[in-house]
Predict the structure.
Amino acid sequence: MSNSKTFSNNLFALNKPLIVAVTGASGVVYSIRLLDFLLACGQKIELVFSNAALRVFQEEHDIILPINDSKEKILQALNLPESRTDLVNIHKSNDYGASIASGSYPSMGMIVIPCTLGSLGSLACGLSQNLIHRAGLVTLKERRKLVIVLREMPYGHIQLKHMLALSEAGAVITSASPGFYHKPQTIQDQIDFVVGKVIDLFDLDNNLFKRWKVDSLNSSQA
């Protein structure tokens, strides 16, 4: 019995989900691309949207998320494969009883993409005002990777202090700042650059963007 239980736990540990939180900053397209990539890779996802994020989806993409409907309907609205609902759990932002609200629920970490400056401040100050904040604080206290993807600019003194506080607590602070050395031709190239860099932080293989000098390195090793 004990051997069977140990095997089961180890098997679960090999398939830990990644928590993805979407808040109400401009740039929710980054979250759509991230989810698309993760689902294509077969990665399990714990997904939560803030109320403000729902409005941004409508403002920026004319997407009305049927948040109280089935997972299939939500994925369909985001133009994501409905057949992969087995990989996704979607939580309401006010559900403090959700699995991701507890540190005993295993995950490989959490990405807040995009992250509002308000959510940044709540996390930096330890305020648990919704499930996103709670899950982020749990991620930090369990010493798991928390990646914050900011898009707003400029940053004021208060926001810079909040970034420093979270960085000192163990979070990784990133910004949706696409590069240009890969000679992007489309907006999608820029979106993929940002999402690819975020995915890199979890050591997940991806070829979403052209890496600096990688081609020359491969040719010199041939």
